[in-house]
Design goal:
This protein is mainly α and 419 residues long. It has three domains: 119 residues, no CATH class; 114 residues, no CATH class; 69 residues. Strand 1 and strand 2 form a beta hairpin. Helix 10 packs antiparallel against helix 11.
């Protein structure tokens, strides 16, 4: 019996030592975990129960409660770590949204609600513990939505920034350096987009920024083409050295189109239509002007040569004056008619000249045939012929014609007298 008593005492002592060792290890673990911000009070309470059981020599139950305290402490610490990870993620999203200038009231409300939820106690195997899991779930759900919001906000913020850059570059792209009406209108869109962004209306901000950027980009592309076409049309018009209302009207229209482009009054589509029309009108004017000027210059050269021959005509002077005026006004039909009248005068002059030349030549042949013949009027005929030739050379066709008529009449009288 003594041996049995010794064996029983040894077992009791071993259980006591084991319980003491487990309690001490649990206490060390709980103390180590206590350096974190996790609320380990429930674990300490369970550990106190284990110590009380140890004092009451209920070693088996003391070990069970000590292990329960250890598990509860580790669980609470892990739950707190999860809560803090979710809190940090949501706080990072809140700070990012705040940096972007967006309202963060809803996230702050979730953070406050999570703290309240964490402060609440839930029962776990008879121990009231902080509701870290419930608080972490609130934060995790909010963080998922917040991440999406941050992503959308970054894209929208980038869109507003790119639109602002595109709008600001409009003034630098204009040859005049002016911002213009379009630039001011697009700046208003950027301001509206910025306000909507600050209010958290990302869809509206994105729509406004996209519209501003699209219009600015279109103005860049269409404006560059329009400016180039207008410059080309202006150079074509300048090369003509054209004077008069028609050329001045086209020059004014080009200047007005340039001003409208610089001020942004023309959208790209309208600007292209206007510029294309002006280019066609300048090209048409240049073609017709060159042809008309060539016709007028040729007519003036012909008239100049005829004037050197002594020809002068009020009708031709008037026709060429009207043609020069029509050239300035771009009245091509009037110019054509005036050139036609002048040309007809030239043709009549040429026909008259050719007819007199033939008459002189014919009379010269007849006079030559009478050389040596006893024709009393022959000296008079030769004198009239010589005078007609002189009048002809000086372009005085009417005088030459009169002398030829007299010489011809004398020639006929001499022929009848001789016969």
């Amino acid at each position: 019996m003594l041996a049995n008593a010794r064996t029983s005492g040894s077992r009791t002592a071993w259980r006591a030592q084991n319980a003491d060792r487990v309690i001490r290890m649990t206490e060390q673990l709980v103390s180590a975990l206590g350096s974190t911000q996790a609320d380990l009070a429930p674990a300490h309470e369970v550990l106190s129960v284990a110590k009380a059981l140890y004092v009451d020599r209920d070693y088996s139950e003391a070990v069970a409660q000590a292990k329960r305290a250890e598990a509860l402490a580790a669980s609470l610490n892990a739950r707190f770590d999860g809560y803090m990870a979710a809190w940090k993620e949501l706080e990072a999203c809140r700070e990012e949204l705040e940096r972007l200038g967006l309202p963060t009231d809803d996230l702050e409300a979730v953070l406050g609600a999570a703290e309240k939820r964490m402060a609440q106690r839930v029962d776990e195997d008879g121990s009231p513990v902080p509701d870290y899991l419930g608080a972490a779930e609130l934060l995790t759900q909010a963080a998922a939505s917040a991440r999406e919001a941050v992503g959308r906000a970054r894209l929208t913020s980038r869109g507003v920034l790119l639109a602002s850059i595109a709008v600001e570059s409009l003034s630098g792209a204009q040859p005049t350096g002016s911002q213009g009406w379009l630039g001011l209108r697009l700046e208003e869109l950027i301001e509206q987009a910025t306000r909507e962004f600050a209010l958290g209306n990302l869809a509206a901000a994105d729509r406004l920024a996209s519209e501003a950027k699209h219009r600015a980009d279109a103005a860049h592309v269409g404006g560059a083409r329009s400016w180039a076409r207008l410059a080309e049309a202006a150079k074509d018009l300048e090369r003509l050295r054209a004077e008069g209302p028609a050329a001045e009207t086209l020059a004014k229209q080009i200047a007005a189109a340039r001003d409208a482009l610089a001020q942004g009054f023309l959208d790209p589509t309208t600007a292209q239509v206007v510029v294309d029309r002006l280019s066609r009108e300048v090209a048409s004017f240049a073609d017709r002007y060159a042809q008309a000027l060539g016709s007028l210059e040729r007519a003036e050269r012909v008239y100049g040569r005829l004037q050197e021959e002594g020809f002068s005509s009020y009708e031709v002077d008037r026709a060429l004056s009207e043609a020069r005026h029509a050239l300035g006004t771009g009245d091509w039909s009037c110019l054509k008619e005036s050139i036609r009248r002048a040309t007809e005068s030239f043709l009549r002059r040429r026909k008259e000249r050719d007819a007199i030349a033939r008459s002189i030549a014919g009379l010269q042949v007849q006079v030559s045939a009478l050389d040596g013949a006893p024709v009393p009027l022959l000296p008079d005929i030769r004198e009239l012929l010589a005078r007609a030739e002189q009048e002809f050379r000086h372009g005085r066709f009417s005088g030459a014609n009169e002398d030829l008529l007299l010489a011809t009449a004398l020639m006929r009288q001499s022929v009848r007298s001789g016969s």
